[in-house]
């Protein structure tokens, strides 16, 4: 009796695999259609970097600056930025890191701020101090 119960349980568990295995094989042979385009990335050479012990306060005015994601390693003198999203306008943010890039033949030197919890933002898009609503 125990063998019969084990056989029925095994058959019941294996039954769905009979139908899903051929479907999975046919799905694997179809080419995946991707509509997502590759994000534009830019590589910069690091000229100087600074980390703050205490976060500095900055805000956005009316503009919505682009936030970039980038990894900066101690063993590489370069970093690559990729657009990630935008900051809200009229909001106070905290900056914890600053990276200055070197000028090249094709690009001017830029300064990037790391906005805590968001990502890297071009320094010219932020203003020092807390955001205050105009009267």
What does this structure look like?
The relative contact order is 0.20. Strand 5 (111-115) and strand 6 form a beta hairpin. The longest helix has 28 residues, at 2-29. Strands 1, 2, 3, 4, 5, 6 and 7 form a 7-stranded antiparallel β-sheet that branches. With 135 residues, the chain is of the alpha+beta class. The protein contains 1 helix and 7 strands; from the N terminus they run αβββββββ. Helix content is 21%, strand content 40%.
Quick description:
With 135 residues, the chain is an alpha+beta fold.
Architecture blueprint of SSEs:
Blueprint: H1 2-29, E1 41-59, E2 66-70, E3 78-86, E4 92-101, E5 111-115, E6 119-122, E7 127-128
Antiparallel strand pairs: 1-3, 1-4, 1-7, 2-3, 4-5, 5-6
List keywords for this structure.
135 residues, alpha+beta, 7-stranded antiparallel sheet, 1 helix, elongated
């Amino acid at each position: 009796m125990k063998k019969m119960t084990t056989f029925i349980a095994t058959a019941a568990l294996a039954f769905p695999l009979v139908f899903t295995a051929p479907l999975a094989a046919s799905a694997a042979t179809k080419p995946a259609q991707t509509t997502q385009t590759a994000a534009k990335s830019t590589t910069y050479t690091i000229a100087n970097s600074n980390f703050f012990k205490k976060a500095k306060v900055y805000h956005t005015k009316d503009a919505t600056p682009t936030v970039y994601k980038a990894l900066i390693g101690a063993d590489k003198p370069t970093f690559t930025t990729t657009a990630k999203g935008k900051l809200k306008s009229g909001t106070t943010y905290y900056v914890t890191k600053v990276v200055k890039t070197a000028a090249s033949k094709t690009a001017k030197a830029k300064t990037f701020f790391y906005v805590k919890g968001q990502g890297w933002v071009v320094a010219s898009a932020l203003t020092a101090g807390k955001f205050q609503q105009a009267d």
